[in-house]
Amino acid sequence: MKLKKVFAGLAAAATMLGGLAFGASTAIAADDCLLTADPTAEASSKTITIKADDYRQLITNEHISSSTTYTSRSFTAIKLADYAVQQLTVDNVAGGAKYSLNLKTVSDLTVSGAISAALGTNSGYPLSDGDVMEWVSTHLLSDNDSGTEGQKTLRDFATALAKQNFDNAGNNVKESLSGDVTVNGQAGTLTLNPKNGAGVYLLIDASGDVTKFAGKIYAASAPIIIGTPVVSTQGTNSSCVAHSDGIVNIKNETVPLGIFQFTKNDGDGKALGGAKFVISKTVDGKTYYGKYNVETWDWTSELKPTDYTQKEAAGVFTSDATTGHVTFYKLPKGTYTITEVQAPDGFLQNVLPSFTIEITGFDSLTNAAQFNVTSTDQFWKLVSYTEGGQIDGKDNPDSKLVVKNVTSVTQLPLTGGAGIVLFGVIGAVLAGGAVLTFVRSRKTKMALMMA
């Protein structure tokens, strides 16, 4: 009896993909996967184990003491394939093997459709009419292979698969998983017990990036494809279940954080304190305003702060009275919009600038943000940069941002359309004054005539 290479490229279905790290070894399958016992019979064959060098990568709560209960990350588990076990007769198989093992894609149409959509076109590997997950296990390259152009790696497949819509998947293939975390020194182990039984799963980290532990951000795991353990005694073909222990190791991955700072000046270039700013970012088309408290950012509010007497914890950031600096600590890489909401007393309140930056990295010594200015309030020209920076396509990575306030419209460095608008505003004001003078003179004349 000749069986397909069930675990080729699938890395024995257990250590294939490890979130932020990959399995250390890849099984090399022979033509048959033959076993002396049912590989899914034992209870331990229905568990998934995730390990990390830093246990905090596996939890979502701040661990204060030994009495604190660990709250594990939560994963959306999508079952992709069952282990199809076939009992054999001794007459047909040498070496006393009694069982064969294949993969069988689940019958749920949402899942099978998502698998096909994630595969797309694989150059050199036309999709056969056979089982799609067996095709995946047989033909997709391991992540350590360079492959040829157009061929997907297992990481490509996992990433594409996690982006599919599983809303209509049945409860027999989709579930939410969390579990028990055990700690040994700094290392941690998370044990998951999918109720949908032995097989191959896609795990999507539902907890996202977690900001805990003195402001550190622990990144969400990348999508994981993993099989539950094949625990039975190996038969004539020992390699077909090598390393199939249902364990995956993820790296300790924290999101780098740094400092973004700009300077607030008056119209004469002197440091200006007391200016109020808010910071926001856009996620899925929605704007969220940042609040900074105890070295931790909160980006859950869609309401723009309105009480400007408050401080960073309420989302209001104030320029320093001595230096004019406005400083944002522990910002991760990303795109942010900073808007002035209140100028200091004596400065124009209806001419308030805003600008958008993209933080791309941080200086290894100072932790200062490396950033590009992607847009500014070009109308009033109150945002400027020195020593470079990238703004309007000009590439100078060591930018120093300066944001101005003015006391009079005559201090505005207006050009182009802004100058025209200001000219129009002044004209309108003068015209309004002329009308008011005319009306008043008419009233005075009428009063004199009536007298």
From TrEMBL:
The chain crosses the membrane at residues 414-439. Residues 406-445 form the Gram-positive cocci surface proteins LPxTG domain. Residues 260-360 form the SpaA-like prealbumin fold domain. This is Cell surface protein fimafimbrial subunit. It comes from the Bacteria. GO terms for biological process: carbohydrate metabolic process. Residues 1-29 form the signal peptide. It comes from Bifidobacterium biavatii DSM 23969. Pfam families: Gram_pos_anchor, SpaA. Keywords: Cell wall, Membrane, Peptidoglycan-anchor, Secreted, Signal, Transmembrane, Transmembrane helix. InterPro entries: Ig-like_fold, LPXTG_anchor, SpaA_PFL_dom_1. The lineage of its organism: Bacteria, Bacillati, Actinomycetota, Actinomycetes, Bifidobacteriales.
